[in-house]
Design brief:
Layout lengths: L16 E5 H14 L5 E5 L1 H5 L3 H8 L5 E4 L2 H9 L6 E3 L6 H9 L2 E5 L2 H8 L7 E6 L11 H13 L3 E7 L12 H10 L7 E3 L3 H6 L4 H4 L2 E2 L29 E13 L4 E2 L5 E2 L4 E6 L16 E4 L2 E6 L7 E4 L11 E5 L5 H7 L4 H6 L7 E4 L1
Parallel strand pairs: 1-18, 2-3, 2-9, 3-4, 4-5, 5-6, 6-7, 7-8
Antiparallel strand pairs: 1-10, 10-13, 10-17, 11-12, 13-16, 14-15, 14-17, 15-16
The structure holds pyridoxal-5'-phosphate.
The site of pyridoxal-5'-phosphate has 12 residues, from helix 9.
Length: about 375
């Protein structure tokens, strides 16, 4: 009996759903391509389950728009290959053990090299076919990458190894989305290695790409946009001219739910755990089926925007595991069953993230497995 009972049909059950727009993903990928110099290549970054959007669905939608993909989970690369993806796939964290190198070669993956000893490992391993290598240099992020003093020697050594195919020189920007910018890192690179621009290069993330102007030297031959594909801005929602909308990006993920209760409360009544919100007048409080166990940020402040029946209002009180509350005093149409948008269409995830002291990247990646997902158009 139990096995014949559908657990979720979309018509009943808890009303929370994450909807994903294929056409928005395609639109954003076209924006990335437009911003890339004509002869450049775009690797769509779909690590972390395509920033929470779903690996295979996202890859399928992006397939005709990008020249390849970048992930860092071996399982993600395996799944892409298993589902017929024959595009280049760059492994953003490289290999973690010699045994992994053989799997990379078997799956035709490109690897990052970010430590000198990885070149020794490569040199000591027999591979069925040569691996394309992205040589990652530390130009100031101080996270992954070879010291610039080792760069040229490492490059020459890689080029001479039979285990190595095409070599691309790569670096990652630390400040592409703030005033410090990207030029200082490129200056360091050029100072240490004046002829580096004769190599195949890969520099730009979304922020560098969206900043323009598209100078090949500043972006590299291979660009690696992530967040912009999903329709959020590396600058968040508060920098004039740099919001997702200003940048011509469309939200891919819309997290929606419904009001499941309404409380009419008197002035002086408090809402939620710890009573952090106190009504200063009689209020109507809408209770939404969405909480931090769905991926909604618990640190969202009472200024955090939310849409009820398409009208903007704000959170009241603390977000709890399964529920959050909002002010619907000024929304007379609000009733049980009213549509609520947590972020997405009509409400930028960046605006919610700003109010919660985080970034849209984190909101997307934190979308919880228990939230049903639907792809549209
Ligand atoms: C995640 C990642 C990107 C994409 O960054 P966005 O800011 O999402 O565009 C690019 N390059 C590397 C090395 C990354 O790890």
């Amino acid at each position: 009996m139990l096995e014949n009972t559908p657990l979720f049909t979309g018509d009943y059950g808890r009303p929370i759903t994450a909807r994903f727009s294929r056409s928005a993903l395609v639109h954003n990928a076209r924006r990335a391509k437009q911003l890339t110099p004509a002869e450049g290549q775009v690797l769509g970054v779909i690590k972390a389950d395509a920033y929470g959007h779903g690996l295979l669905e996202s890859a399928a939608a992006l397939r005709d728009q990008v020249d390849g993909f970048a992930v860092l989970e071996l399982e993600a690369a395996r799944q892409l290959r298993q589902h017929g993806c024959d595009a280049p796939i760059l492994m953003l964290e490289g290999f973690h053990s010699p045994a992994e190198l053989n799997v990379f070669a078997t799956l035709s993956l490109s690897t990052i090299i970010h430590r000198l000893d990885q070149i020794d490992t490569l040199a000591q391993t027999d591979l069925p076919l040569p691996l394309p290598v992205f040589l990652k240099l530390n130009t100031g992020m101080n996270r992954l990458g070879l010291a610039l003093t080792d760069a040229q020697t490492a490059y020459e050594r890689l080029r001479a190894l039979p285990q190595v195919g095409e070599v691309t020189v790569m670096t990652h920007f630390a400040d592409a989305d703030n005033a410090r910018g990207t030029a200082w890192q490129l200056e360091r690179l050029l100072a240490a290695w004046p002829e580096v621009m004769n190599c195949r290069t890969s520099f730009a993330n979304s922020a560098a790409l969206l900043k323009g102007p598209a100078d090949r030297r500043a972006l590299g031959d291979v660009v690696r946009p992530g967040i912009m594909l999903y329709g959020a801005s590396p600058w968040g929602d508060s920098v004039v001219g740099k919001t997702a909308n200003d940048l011509g990006l469309q939200p891919v993920m819309t997290l929606g739910s419904e009001l499941i209760a309404i409380q009419d409360i008197q002035a002086g009544e408090r809402v939620g755990y710890g009573g952090t919100f106190t009504a200063d007048r009689p209020m109507r409080i809408g209770v939404v089926a969405c909480g931090y166990a769905d991926g909604y940020p618990r640190h969202a402040t009472s200024q955090t925007p939310i849409l009820v029946n398409g009208q903007r209002t704000t959170l009241t009180g603390r977000v709890s595991m399964d529920r959050l509350c909002c002010d619907v005093t000024h929304i007379p149409t609000a009733r049980v069953g009213s549509a609520v948008t947590l972020w997405g269409d009509g409400l930028p995830a960046d605006a919610v993230a700003d109010s919660a002291g985080t970034i849209a990247y984190e909101l997307f990646c934190a979308l919880a497995p228990r939230v049903p997902r639907v792809w549209q158009d």
